[in-house]
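Why this split exists: single-chain examples teach little about how molecules sit against one another. For that reason, every record in the complexes split bundles all components of an assembly together and asks for one structure covering all of them. Below is a record exactly as it appears in the raw files.
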Amino acid sequence: MIDLLEEAIHLLRRTSAITYAYYLLGVTPFALLFFQLLADASYHRYLAEHLGDSVIRLAVAYCWMKGFQALACQRLLAAYSGEPLRRRGPLELLQLSSAQCAIQPWGILIKPMAFIVMVPSPFVDAFFQTASIVITGNRGEFMRCLGLSGGQIGPGLILSGIIFAFRIVMFVCVYSTLAALPFLCKMLFGVETLLTHNFQWLLSVPFLLGTGFVSYLIIDLLLKSFYVIRLRRLECETSGKDLVHRLAALGYAVASK
Amino acid sequence: MKLAARRCLVHPDREAAARCPSCHQYYCRECVVEHDTRFLCAACLQKSIEAGSRHRSAGFDWLSPIRLLLGFAGAYVSLYVIERILLLIPINLYNGTWF
């Protein structure tokens, strides 16, 4: 488990900047709309009046985010396996995004429910993370994803525990950085803002939820990298694809000398 | 005739090691490759890969818009529930005056 996580961090280090660009391009609109939602929620009446518009905007941004996250996962998989990335035409991209859209949004409701019950939580998490990598809109991928997500509950719960600890550490890091910024600006540059007048905003729900969301997104990328490696290893156990690829690379290296 | 008595189609000086299930010709162990749990010759492997990629990119998938709508409905319902929960939080928690 730990060596897989280490490898996942290493994969994130050596992957190209384009993968991060895809991830950020997908995440940014949803994150901005989510922050706007939190700001609107501070004025209850305003959010209650514009609830429908706000939900539609967020839903579109969510589907957009999941599509780009799937593309980032494809790039991570290509970076890990060393195989060339398959170019997709517009229709294939539409197929991929629609397949992702059909599955991922249900995770918003199912994941918290599974987290409360605890036991199916590792399976549910593994399913939605594996779906980001496996499901591209072709037939049979849903069943394949279900098959790949299964496994023993024990290691899954340990992984959930480790990831939960990572999320708390990341939350503390992001929280302390964001909380220190206005005071640092005041100390170093003499810039006085509303945020430096009192400390109440440090305990406000929008700030806490926003910080939690940012730390969730950071750890989510690590988790995606983890599942890319897990998926590749599971597939290679039966097909030996990794060995074939290594042998081919070795043959190419010998031939080019 | 037994497999051991057959010769490779590409290398007639070698004895056959496998029979391609697609073209039914005999090949030595260097001329076949395992693909999708079957041993295929190079030509049939190429055809199989090309057929696979053609199948993958074969025209417009009419299920895509339905999937998009289904997913959008899922996202709408889930996010609506979240926003309703956000509205249940008391106002003094939003502005940090609760403590």
